[in-house]
Structures are given as C-alpha cells and as structure tokens.
Amino acid sequence: MLTKAPRGTKDITPKESYKWNYVENKFREICSLYGYEEIRTPVFEHTELFKRGVGDTTDIVQKEMYSFTDKGDREITLKPEGTAGAVRAFIENKLYSEPRPSKLFYITPCFRYERPQAGRQRQFHQFGVEALGSDLPSIDAEVIALSVQFFKEIGLKDLSVSINSVGCPKCREEYNKKLREYLDKKSEVLCETCIDRKDKNPMRVIDCKNKTCQENLKDIPFMIDNLCDDCKNHFDMLKEYLNEMRINYVVDKTIVRGLDYYKKTAFEIISSDIGAQSTVCGGGRYDGLVYELGGPKDITGVGFALGVERLLLTLENNNIEIENNNSLDIFVVTIGEKANLKSFSIVKSLRDNYIKCDKDHLNRSVKAQFKYSDKLNSKFTVVIGDDEIENNTVVLKNMNTSEQFTISLSNLVDELKSRI
Ligand code: HAM
Fold first, then answer.
1. Which of 105, 176, 236, 248 gives 31 a disulfide partner, CB atoms 3.0 to 4.6 angstroms apart?
2. The domain 330-419 is classified under which CATH number: 3.40.50.10260, 3.40.50.800, 2.60.40.10, 3.40.50.300?
3. Ligand 1 and 267: CB distance under 6 A
C-alpha cells in the first residue's frame, strides 16, 4: 500500500519526464506564437464553480469529481478540467478590462474519478487555451489552428479535426423540443441513461455507446441541421477560415461534448490508435459561461484542452521518438584523493560555464567510473590523477568516437565549449 501510487495515478520518472518537458516546451512555444499567455490557477476550487461551470447534469459533476469538505467546512473539489478555473480567475482578476480577446493558456493536472484504462487516468494532465472576449468565428478558427499546428510540430500530421455546431440557447431550445418528441417515441428501446438524459440534456443521448440505443437512434435529428441563422452563419464562417488556412477537417454531426457550457462551435481531434479513449483534444465555444460564473454579460469564450497522457500515447503508437538531450557533456574521472579534491573546483567551473557535468560520489574504481560515465551517456570523459594535476594537462576522451586529445587543464572549459 505504502509503496503503491493510488489507482488511476502514475509517476512520471526521469525515463519519461524528458518527453513531458519536450511537449510542454513545444506547447508554450506555439501558444506564444499565437499570442497566448500562461495562467496558473489553483488545483482546487469551490465545488460550486464546477457545478455551475461544467454543469450539474454532466458525468463529471454527477460521478467523477474529487470533492471534500475542508477543515473550515468549505465544499472543495480538485479541478476536473481547466476551463472553469481559468474563467473564474479571468473574472476575479478583472482581465476583461484589458485589451480583448484575453488569450490564455495553461498546463495543469486534472482529476476525474473514472475507471482507469489506457489513456484514461484519475489524475491526468491537460494543455489548454482559452480566448475570452471575441464572439467572432475568427477566434474559433485561430484556436483550432493553434491546436493543429501544435500536433503537427510534434510530428502528428495525420490527426483528423472534427467540427460541429451545438447551437445557442435560442435554437437549442427549439431543437431540444424536437428531440424530446423524437425520443418520446423511442422510450421503450432506450437505456436508462438515455431516458435520464432525455429530460435533463437530450442532446447527450447522441453520445450513448449502448448498441441498442445506437441501432434505434439512426434517424435522430442533429443540432447542426436545426441551427438558427446566427449559429449557421458562425459555423459557415468558421469553415471558410479553416479552408483559407488549408486546415483539413470533417463535419461530425455527432459531436456533442460532455460538458454543458458549449455553444456554437464544438470540435475534437481524434487519434485512431489509442483504443477506446481516442479523443486527444476537445474544445469549443462557451458563450455565457463568464456571465454564469459572475462576470460581465457580454464576454464570450472559446478554447480547447488536450490530454497529455493521450498525446504521449499517440506519439508512441506512431513511433515518434522524442530525443532525450539530458545527457552529460562531460564526466570527470578521478584517480586518488588529491584528484578527487581537485575535481570539486573543476566540476564547479564547468557548471559555472553551463557545461553539464558530473563526478563520482561513491568512491568507485576508475573502471567503474568509466562504466558509470557510459551509463550517463556523457559525451566526453576526462581523467584527473596526480600527474595531470602536476603537469596541468589532461586527456579528453570523446565517448562516441573514442578519439583522445591532450589539452591543458586550464583550457578545459574553452576546449569543451568549442567541441560541444
Ligand atoms: P474534455 O473533452 O473533457 O474537455 O477534456 C479534454 C481532454 O482531456 C480530452 O480530450 C482527453 O484527451 C483528456 N482527458 C479527459 N479525461 C481524461 C482522463 N480521465 N484521463 C486522461 N485524459 C483525459 C475539457 O476538459 C474542456 N475544459 C476543454 C475546453 C477548454 N473547452 C473549451 N476550453
């Protein structure tokens, strides 16, 4: 028990953390290209934020939240997603009084009590962006373009972007009425979850994975065929902008998303090779959320989040390797006590000059030090003994080519700088 991480969580050890650093840095780089700046919000928030933000009827709020009462009797929840916290912080810090749109990105752990499987954990991580304060479809297109560029830059060129429109309160109300009438006629063949969803949030019936429901709902009406003029125009413009940027997409009428705040644009990026949990990235527009959470009425938003674990799985399944460039520049091998003492100043001066180096800390034999240096993948090795200290010359060995150079010890830093 003590030495086992809780179910649904994973350690990220150095064998993997370099990959995390790589994708994180790439994400930061792409966000900065598009003018998005980082926001960091607490890992826990008041439970009410997610009930109001994500929605009372969602699986997340009903079944998956890590909620508890703290010692001060506050209802607290570990964030199940990044949007609600980012929007809360946007309001609390009055970011809306700054030039709009506010372009924010985040990198955050999230918590959902789900049944763990490949690509599905209880603690997982999201990279996300939120653009607040523009209701034009151009910003939806930009957000999609950002995600596509990110995936491309890390080597995933063939992921498919699926887009849909889930309408606005005006056309959704009409559509829900139509949908309920349709579903009422199917009551006998629907599963319990669908019956429940029919009343609370009928569009979510489309997401049902039950085979019988799927069989019987083949002619279900879709939101996208029932949009009001404003939503239709928004969607048409979005497609036009994506076409202009030559971003490939398909319109998938079945995308409804599992969070309640979506209006108009909804999109997903799917990877076909990570099994059931194939949605790597999901997002869309959430007009009304800022107001719902206590902010100004007119501020709209759009964004996405991608799951980092799913991203790394997809990279692995596509045989895309991330280079580990954490290897050492040089390992300093010492012979004897005097050399060991001297190595402290040598290593310090190498590190002061940003040369990645290490030395032995286990009193290893010379042979074992070389073996250890090899294990650490160091590019060079230098041996320091009594003679080297006396003559002020050392032998520098290139570990890849086995070439050796005799150089002056006082030139070690400059010599390495020119060779690395
Ligand atoms: P979401 O679709 O719930 O959207 O999650 C986004 C991504 O997080 C998913 O596509 C998936 O890659 C990853 N994910 C979700 N649950 C898990 C899990 N249990 N284990 C591993 N990965 C998971 C949102 O969270 C929205 N806040 C996205 C958004 C931002 N919409 C607008 N702005």
1. 105
2. 3.40.50.800
3. no
- In whole angstroms, what is the distance from residue 302 CA to residue 82 CA? 13
At 278-293, the pLDDT tens digits run 899 999 999 999 999 9
Q: Per-residue pLDDT averaged across 82-94, rounded? A: 98
Mean pLDDT of the chain: 95
Could you give the C-alpha distances from 341 to 113, 220, 321, 334, 407, in angstroms and in order? 53, 78, 40, 9, 20
Dihedrals φ, ψ of 363, to 5°? 50, 45
pLDDT above 70 (res 185): yes
112 C-beta closer than 6 A to ligand 1: yes
pLDDT at 275: 67
User: For a pLDDT cut of 90, what percent of the chain falls above it?
Assistant: 91
All structural domains of the chain with their residue ranges: 14-167+248-317, 169-227, 330-419
The residue to mutate among 310, 313, 314, 315, having the most atoms of ligand 1 within 8 angstroms of its beta carbon, is: 310
Rounded to an integer, what distance in angstroms lies between the CA atom of residue 322 and that of residue 250? 29
CB–CB of 15/26 below 8 Å?
Answer: no
Position 412: which residue type?
A: L
Could you tell me if the CB of 194 is within 6 A of ligand 1? Answer: no
Nearest to 138 by CA among 238, 282, 20: 238
Q: Is the pTM of this model over 0.85?
A: yes
Q: In CATH, what class is 14-167+248-317?
A: alpha beta
What is the spatial distance between Cα 394 and Cα 265, in angstroms, rounded to a whole number?
65
Our answer on whether the CB atom of 284 is closer than 6 Å to any ligand 1 atom is yes
SS3 265: strand
DSSP result, 268-317: EEE-TTSTT--EEEEEEE-TTHHHHTTS-TT--EEEEEEEHHHHHHHHHH
Assign 3-state DSSP to the chain and report helix, strand, coil percentages, each to 5: 45, 20, 35
Looking at ligand 1, which residue's alpha carbon is closest to its atom 4? Answer: 282
Q: Hey, what are 157's tokens?
A: 């060129």
CA angle 116, 81, 248 (to 5 degrees): 90
